[in-house]
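protien #1 (seq + structre)
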Amino acid sequence: MKKLIVLLSIIPAIGSLTVINRVEPYILGLPFIIFWSAAWLVITSICLYISSVICERMEGK
């Protein structure tokens, strides 16, 4: 389960950079690619935290 969550959070972050490599449009004052990278940094951190909580609960049982 933990590996699946990690893969689901990392693959879109890395694999889509070649598809969305453009400066326009601007989101929150940032070029789209920088906003995309920053958003996936946050999303990946959240997914890893969730997987950590799930694994700790499974080990506690």
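ok now protien #2
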Amino acid sequence: MDAAPVARAAAPPRPPFVDEHRIVVDAPAERVWPVLAAEFGGTGGRIFEAYARFIGAKPSRSRGAPFTEGSTVPGFAVAEAVPGRSVRLAGRHFYSRYELTLDLSELPGGTVVRARTYAAFPGPLGRGYRLLVIGSGGHRALMVRRLAAVGRRAERAGRWVG
């Protein structure tokens, strides 16, 4: 007697596109990737952890090595990862379901880092949250700041001081 196949739940569809940010880093991808993982795969600090708990972010804790499938940070789980190339982070909270994809593309003499955000904001509270976070420019400012930090650190990592 054959066992019946196990039905797998279909993954929810990707939320709607929100925005994309890019930077060009004067460093090879193998130097950019660990810096990107430290910036986006870390805990985010105590203030971010408290905020994530306040809004009911899932997952709520950090687990596993940064940017490895199944690892988590408050508010995000690594849904897919191609080490050194791309990672898709997914999460949810009371007001939104979202994904952040980070991709590296090598250019002669540098690396393009691309961050794309997708998010759904259901219901009146979700619409209000979208206005607060996206409409205010806060999300954009945070992404630009974090990507710039990745660029500075990756470029500095290759310089000799002496």
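The CA atoms of residues 60 and 74 lie 4 Å apart.
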